[in-house]
Amino acid sequence: MDSKSAWMVYNHYMKDHPASRTSPGAHPALIRLLLSLAAVCLTLLGMEAVFYVLGEAREQSEGVSISTSRNLYQRDELLAASPRPNIEVLVEKKRGEEVVYAVTYATDAYSRRITPMDNPDDRTRFVLFFGGSFTFGEGVEQNETLPFYVSELSPDYKAYNYGFLGYGPQQMLAKLQSDDFASQIDESNGILIYTFLDHHVNRAVGTARIYRFAFGGDYLNYVLQEDGTLVLDGTFTTGRPVASRLYRLFGKSRIVRYFKLDFPPITEKHIQTTAKIIEEARDAFIQKFPDGKFYVLFFPNRSNQYGPRLAPYLQTAGIEILDYANAIPEYDEMWIPGDGHPTPQTYRLIAEMLVNDLELANTLAD
Questions:
Q1: Which of 116, 143, 247, 272 has the highest count of CB atoms within 10 angstroms of its CB?
Q2: What is the pTM of this model?
């Protein structure tokens, strides 16, 4: 309620209670309440104005801009959004006049980012990659992604990149449960790598932050029941319309945007929900590929709050974890300067560890 609304309520009350006009002390508590509400509203409006100015100044000083040669996104009824199929998009990110990256994203008929590799028809096993931008390879070329380096080091494995910008575990679950998924894979046996980062918990449960994505409200809304079962309740927008409106309103606050706040705080129930989504994705994968192996990769990142909390639930479900969260000491070329996504060098290091730990390079010799 803003100050104008508060005074309207007050005036309406005065009209219905004329005695109050002649007896100023008759309802002092109500008057104090209305004045307090008006003061709070004015204070909030003033703070919003201040942080609007500060936010605009910061954005102008950072000067971040992203340009594309064509639209990369398309609406997807199952995944909310996906890359458009069979396209090649030039993407350039700049800070002021400085180019942060200029790369090409190319997709195949199934909207997967293409992973170039030698002798694809001679490879007898698959390695499927699921996750968000760290899997997709934001800011790097086709031959600089994690799937590319793993395929380069594992000559018997054909890599498929199902990651995309903003994805969480629910996109993986929905994709693996789709009827036509197995027909998209040429090989009959292999492994799946799901790359986990802390903010995937926020995406799985739909905190206010995900509504900043163009199609965030359309993410599938998986709800963990008291008996431990997972139920699909529409999308975040259709399954919880009131909360969605509040989260969108929260996200519009200039104070919230300036301090990069999120709501609600992550609880143990949120961690359990994320773990259950991953567990059911594993089950869907094994149902389609009974001899396949399913792994969760904890990728190095500056925030590692939720991985240690998630791990016990995954281990209880029999899910193997590749915990690389702290495997690489921070170094100068670990992250793209001015962006925060991994550099090709980082992807290469993780690929080497993954291939070594899973002994993928020894498959042909075996």
A1: 247
A2: 0.86
**Domain interval for residue 295:** 66-362
My answer on whether 183 and 80 are in the same domain is yes
CA distances from 113 to 213, 279, 298, 353, 361 (A): 20, 25, 21, 23, 23
Same domain, 207 and 136: yes
Angle at 169 between CA 216 and CA 286, to 5 degrees: 145
> Which residues have a Cβ under 8 Å from the Cβ of 134 and sit 6 or more positions away?
146, 163, 195, 197, 299, 341, 342
Q: Strands 88-95 and 64-68: what pairing?
A: antiparallel
> Buried (b) or exposed (e) across 233-250, using 16+ Cβ within 10 A?
eebbbebbeeebeebeeb
Whether 197 and 287 share a structural domain: yes
What digits encode the pLDDT tens for the residues 69-82? Answer: 889 999 999 999 99
pLDDT tens per residue across span 161-187:
999 999 999 999 999 999 999 999 999
